[in-house]
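Re: the 296-residue chain
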Amino acid sequence: MDDVPALAPAQPPGAPPSWPVPPGGWDAHAHVFGPPDDYPLAPSRRYLPPTQTLEQYLATLDRLGITHGVLVQPSVYGLDNSCLLDALDRAPDRLRGVIAADLTRGPADELAALTARGVRGVRVAWTPALARSGLAEQAAVLADLGWHLDIRVEEADHLLTLGPQLAELTIPVMVESMGSPAADDPDAAGFRLMLELITEPHIHAKLSHPYQIDRTGPPYRGTVRFARALVEAAPGKLVWGSDWPHPLIGGGVVPRDNALLDLLLEWAGDPTLARQVLCDNPARFYGYQVEGGAVV
């Protein structure tokens, strides 16, 4: 018997967003979970995900009026990226991927081959125990691959240690969850540093995971001050992510994705900036081009 919590599935997307979502939008942070018989979960998993298929995710994007998605490797699969890679293979014109990998091991040509399958980065869940040398070594490999580093921190104050390391890197860096500030501490030193980091040419951030910032539940009003501060500091460095099907919600209320996309408009402050975050910035960051009708 599994002794970790079983998570609820995503809610149906419901009504379309309340604002006219522009064409060419991107959801820059989502996951898919295949049947466990086909995609075994890691022994160290922290939760038991429901099966949430690629077809369900693409249907959600269609309902929201969003064209592209970025699948990010969830922790429950460890370094086995099979579920994510299979999804990329089945929807190459719509998806990009961010995998989990130990870049200091394994043949480099095997990693390079994943670029053609849509992989554009590696995710690192950073903790203060993560060695500085390990991060630098991974960044060197990422530079050769032409990929970016996707960083998750559990709390904004971790940026006080990690931030100077990120500033020294020369590869693109994407910080999840606005840097993970706490809604009840808007003046925290970690988030103030995030506002400095976002002005570095190579550092970007996701407007995502509102329930990790404001734990009081929808409509996550406590997140607005942080998103607005980031938009004011660097509107060209931000992307939006739904975190579908919301595995980090824990035991809270699973939000509807149309409401999360409505929240983006409030975060951005006006439709022009919302379009920049939803369409222009991620298309540039994730290397979206069209050649002969195909995404490359």
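The longest strand covers residues 119-126.
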